[in-house]
Design a protein that fits this description.
The protein contains 16 helices and 23 strands. The chain is of the alpha+beta class. The protein folds into three domains: about 240 residues, no CATH class; about 80 residues, no CATH class; about 100 residues, no CATH class. The strands form four sheets. Strands 4-2-1-5-3-6-7-8-9-10 form a ten-stranded mixed beta sheet, sandwiched between helices. The longest helix has 17 residues. It starts with 15 loop residues before the first helix and ends with a strand. This is HET-domain-containing protein. It comes from Trichodelitschia bisporula. Pfam families: HET. InterPro entries: HET (IPR010730).
Length: about 475
């Protein structure tokens, strides 16, 4: 539901900045979105007064006495774009220019997106700004970055503790900026208003994997899109044309939580599971410059959620939801192997290996899950799950597209399998692991549907890799099992 339309402001309008200030002021006074934590990133940019042409890179530990009375910093969420190493050396903070920047550096040396962020920070009456490219020492070319390895796990705290986040949603890179003039009125023909789901979610910024945790963990965000500026906080979403948006989907309601994921946790197990599956399906499609960052780009979000749910996590799997989160299959375009994003660094059981995934919709099912340590995380080997392997028996298989239907000895349909790649489909499959079994209904145990992972041998005697997933009648699975490790 969308409220009555109002007057569009726009960056060039004298009412624009006062409106942004008013949003934040009302939020401070009436909501509980503003962080009360006294956290400072390792470094921030001191932006100085509005007429200053110089910036300074501050190490917060050295400026404790000054920052103790400060009212926080603003964080920038942005797209890096395709930059050459030469452009990165000129713009980024590196070991070579680090000490120089602490003494001061020209605002004019920065690209338009960063200059716009400085301008908004000053106009909002703040003195400190955090930008990853400037506040984390960059290694160029990017071949191992010790400072990044220290700072990356802190992203949740950095964005979650900021006064607010500026999201340069429409800018495809550093050069474009996000304060370009826009139309000052609605079209006379009544052109429909674009909702944030379109204007924000479809923007270039929100196709980047790193941005998911930046957005979710930020307590409040100013989204600068091609059409409008939006203010998003725990109370809802407001647009610069004075529209307030209400009644968003329940999944979006959880994302607006300034103390994410507390709302989600209080919603119950099944609703939490449904949301988490939705979140991970979206994340799998997001883009990364370095696919090796697939795990670390969501690490702060995983940690925050695991803290609230009081559970462990590994490679996109929460321990308390592990049985249902292991039941995923690659999306329809993935079976040719083109959407495999990692074949070495991630375990075979992690959905993070694929850029398109679909979880089984088991949230509405009552499942019996294995006990006695099944699928437990190994705390000696990060990539290993403890499993019990069984044999598939008395079946034949018929392929129809990406699905392989299972028939019993009487040619009756008893299940369906999905292989992770077409290469996996060519491997003779005899082994599986039961993830869960339907517990509802009056069927005999042998007729109940089991949800399984298909596994193949690895070089080590006890080690197996996932090659697919499926569901099949229990009578086609052996009762005898042996212990192994899923890698």
């Amino acid at each position: 539901m969308i409220a009555d339309r109002g007057l569009l402001a726009g960056p060039e309008n004298s009412l624009y900045i006062p409106l942004l200030r008013q949003w934040l002021k009302k939020c401070d006074e009436n909501h509980e979105c503003h962080s009360k934590k006294h956290f400072w990133p390792t470094r921030v940019i001191f932006v100085g007064p509005s007429d200053s042409t110089e910036l300074e890179l501050w190490e917060t530990e050295e400026k404790k006495s000054v920052l103790s009375d400060a009212d926080g910093y603003i964080a920038l969420s942005h797209c890096w774009g395709r930059l050459t190493d030469e452009e990165k050396r000129k713009i980024c903070t590196t070991a070579e220019n680090f000490e120089t920047r602490k003494g001061g550096f020209p605002l004019s040396d920065l690209p338009k997106t960063f200059q716009d962020a400085v301008e908004v920070t000053r106009q909002l009456g703040k003195k400190y700004l955090w930008i990853d490219a400037l506040c984390i020492k960059q290694q160029i070319p990017n071949e191992g970055n010790p400072d990044f390895e220290i700072e990356a796990p802190l992203m949740g705290q950095i964005f979650g503790s900021a006064f607010c986040t500026l999201a340069a949603s429409s800018a495809v890179d550093w050069k474009q900026g996000f304060l370009a003039p826009r139309p000052t009125s609605y079209d006379a023909d009544g052109t429909p208003f674009q909702t944030p789901q379109y204007d924000v979610d479809a923007a270039p910024l929100n196709k980047r994997a790193w941005v998911l945790q930046e957005r979710v963990l930020s307590r409040r965000t100013l989204h600068f899109t091609e059409s409008y500026t939006y203010f998003e906080c725990g109370d809802g979403v407001r647009c610069e044309n004075l529209i307030r948006l209400k009644g968003r989907e329940i999944k979006e309601y959880f994302l607006l939580d300034p103390r994410f994921p507390e709302r989600l946790y209080s919603s119950g197990y099944m609703r939490s599971l449904d949301f988490i599956q939705h979140l991970f399906e979206k994340y799998a499609q997001y883009q990364l410059t370095n696919e090796s960052d697939r795990n670390i780009a969501i690490l702060s979000l995983m940690k925050r959620m695991s803290d609230v749910f009081r559970t462990g996590h590994r490679y996109g799997i929460f321990e308390c939801f592990r049985f249902r989160l292991l039941l995923w299959r690659p999306g329809p375009q993935s079976n040719d192997g083109k959407n495999v994003v990692d074949t070495q660094k991630l375990p075979s059981w992690s959905w993070m290996r694929y850029s398109q995934i679909l979880f089984f919709e088991t949230w509405s099912l009552s499942l019996e899950v294995p006990r006695n340590g099944a699928f437990e995380f190994s705390y000696e080997q990060q990539c290993v799950l403890s499993i019990r392997i069984r044999q598939l028996k008395d079946y034949t298989m018929e392929q129809q597209g990406s699905e392989h239907f299972i028939l019993d000895a009487k040619s009756e349909h008893v299940g369906v399998l999905w292989f992770d790649t077409m290469t996996d489909a060519s491997i003779p499959i005899q082994k599986c692991v039961i993830v869960g079994r339907e517990s509802s209904g009056e069927s005999q145990d042998s007729e109940k549907t089991c949800y399984i992972l298909l596994v193949g041998d690895m070089t080590s005697e006890k080690s197996y890799k996932r090659v697919g997933v499926g569901k099949i009648k229990a009578r086609c699975i052996s009762k005898r099992y042996w212990d192994g490790e899923l890698c």
